[in-house]
Hints:
The chain is α/β, with parallel strands linked by helices. The protein has helices spanning 22-40, 63-73, 85-88, 92-104, 123-156, 177-191, 196-206, 221-229, 242-248, 276-292, 330-335, 355-375, 380-383, 385-409, 415-456, 462-472; strands at residues 3-9, 43-50, 79-82, 110-113, 116-117, 311-313, 321-324, 337-340, 352-354, 473-478, 496-500.
Amino acid sequence: MHVVGGYTRISDTGQIGDGRDGREGVIRQRDDVHHLAQAKRVDIHRIYEDNDTSAYKRHVNREDFEAMILDLRNGVISGILAYNIDRIARQPRDLERLIDIYEQSRRPMIFGTTMGDYDLTTGDGRFQARIYVTIANKFSADAARRVARQKLAEAAEGKPHTGQRAFGWKDLQRVDEREAELLRKARQDVVNGKTIASIHQEWRELGVRSPQTRAGKSIGYSSVKYVLRNPRLCGYRSYIPQEVRERSGRVDPVEYLIERTDGTPIVGKWETIFTPTEWRELVDVLDARKNTGKGRKAGSTVTKRLLTGIARCAKCGNGMQSAMYTRGTVTYEKHGYFYLCAKAHGGCGKLARSGPPVEDLVEKALLDNLKKQTCSVQPAEEQDPELARTTRLLAQIEADKSEARQLRADDLLSLAEFAREISRLEIKEQEVRETVSALSTASARAGSAAVRIVREWGNYTVDMKRQEITRSIEAVVISGAGKGGAQRGAFRPDLIEIVWKQP
Ligand SMILES: [Zn+2]
């Protein structure tokens, strides 16, 4: 009599649709396997059973699955029975190992499930099996994504990270004063022009270690960079998915800041070391260096106003500087300082304008412009006909897939036809999704950044504001009032032209 193995498995990511969870699920799978064996008049050598594992996660070792492979190879069993093919192999590579054994076998082999048999010795049978495993693998990836989303939801509520403490904290909540002091000093030093390399050197000399520093090693450069960029410092929550951590080691936590859909950051429930403004300033300074490849000039004492160098003289084109009005004068009381085309900086020396009114005008124009960007995000589909078309196409593919499933359920499609159709639709879907994401990410990213800037503008330092201004404004050109145009304090917006950068 033919001797086979029965295989049962429960995955920890939950089952799709069949409602088989936990211990009870294994017992029901076993019953199914026994019924199958009776119907096929074969003997079950033993039940191979992997519980609470997921074949989808690559690192999970399925002990009984390995034992079953060995028994198949050694001829102890001549086939497998299972409730469903996705119980046996959820990863294409599992299936390929089985296919190798079936193809090389010189004895009759069974691969049976309650949903039907697969003849792994024929091309058609292998094709069907591969399609089913591919689909199951996709479902499993969805399930894994659900778990990741759950973690994200917890993070979104501001729960602290579990596990290892972060540099700067004694535990998940309380600040470690010694490390916090190092961080505060480092932040001040970086803003004043010190490089991370210097901070790294100092910390090494002080014997500073991060929770991740391995025994016998000193703190690494990338660790220093990481702990300084950590949004946690100011209470902001970031979430770096496990798969990203595993794949790329050190990542930039700033890129994984969690924001609500309205763009506001999620604030955690732990003690903080920096204010959000302090943290942003630090990150901006570091980012600015990354962009130019050189640090800010250390020890520079020239006060940079909001529009220093950005405001330009319409007469000679020179970047304008700032100076204070004479103390005690009305203009001093009213405006404090003014911009001027300074001869000392190579200008014509013929133009000056009170500072704050010009700045107000520019800030308002910039924020209006950013708000426009955030508004243009939602109706992106209306604006981009290509995006609208692909979005409709995706909906159509989804509808086709459920129709195919329905036809299969009603037995109007053969297994092979169904497998071919699903495979075709999935390939198509993949292509369309790639197009959609390429089309939509660029505008969405710009939009969410804009929301953040508008919201936090009031907390921005002058440097941060300057950075945002120069991102979208080429220059602010200031013209003279002309003959007889002495202003007597009246501000003339018509004499100011904002030159926007081309998008
Ligand atoms: Zn000039």
